């Protein structure tokens, strides 16, 4: 079971980067900023709020924290890893240049 959890944790951290590298840069930009044309024909966009990064980061951080903390019931490691991963995932998703107005 422990090897399965380690493998699952590693996969959870690697899978988003694999998906991001298989999509073209223009498609990534359009998806990330949710572009659309307004009634006046101007390009509009909305920056992501970071919810997906928050959830994925919390899960990956929780699994990593649980793996690192090997003493006792490992609750502290899981909680601290989840909180740290959530904050990191949210900031990673929200970071980046804004290319549209």
Automatic annotation (TrEMBL):
InterPro entries: Gly_zipper_2TM_dom. Keywords: Lipoprotein, Signal. Residues 53-93 form the Glycine zipper 2TM domain. GO terms for cellular component: cell outer membrane. Residues 1-25 form the signal peptide. Coiled coil: none annotated. It is a lipid-anchor. The keyword Cell membrane does not apply. It is found in: Cell outer membrane. The keyword Lipoprotein applies. Belongs to the rickettsiale 17 kDa surface antigen family. This is 17 kDa surface antigen.
């Amino acid at each position: 079971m422990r090897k399965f959890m380690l493998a699952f944790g590693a996969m959870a951290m690697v899978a988003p980067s694999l998906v991001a590298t298989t999509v073209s840069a223009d498609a990534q930009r359009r998806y990330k900023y949710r572009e659309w044309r307004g009634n006046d024909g101007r390009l509009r966009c909305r920056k992501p709020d970071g919810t997906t990064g928050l959830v994925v980061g919390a899960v990956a951080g929780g699994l990593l924290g649980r793996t690192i903390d090997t003493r006792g019931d490992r609750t502290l490691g899981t909680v601290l890893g989840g909180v740290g991963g959530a904050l990191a995932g949210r900031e990673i998703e929200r970071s980046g240049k804004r290319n549209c107005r």
